[in-house]
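A further point concerns the way the authors explain their paired sequence and structure data. Each protein is reduced to its one-letter sequence and a matching series of backbone shape codes. An entry of this sort, consisting of the sequence and the corresponding backbone structure tokens, reads as follows:
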Amino acid sequence: MPRPLGELEDAVMTRVWQWNRPVTVREVLEDLQKERSIAYTTVMTVMDNLHQKGWVRREVEGRAYRYTAVSTRAAYAAALMNEAWARSDNPAAALVAFFGMMSQDQREALDDAIRIVQRVTPLAAPPAEGADESGAQER
């Protein structure tokens, strides 16, 4: 399970995910500076930490690195949700509470996701009447 990203790590990864291409420290720095005062070395350290933690891979280009996300923001969010759910002592109650917090748009997205998952991995058909759990007919 990935550890949740810190605020600055998330700000950096947001750009890497949104741009969906190899990025340099300079590019991220310039975009971050539109919102806050931040030093080049700070962004470089954060991107190096993200590399060490396995969030990004990097390739040398001249005297700099280009960083690329290892996974998607959706995969990160899913891993966080899965971890939170797995820690619950009552997963069904946790889901009910979570669903209760959802907006109508989020519920519709959930319905769409369930339909997609069911198409990709359909539930197994129940055993035929008179069959045991393995599906073999009883004699």
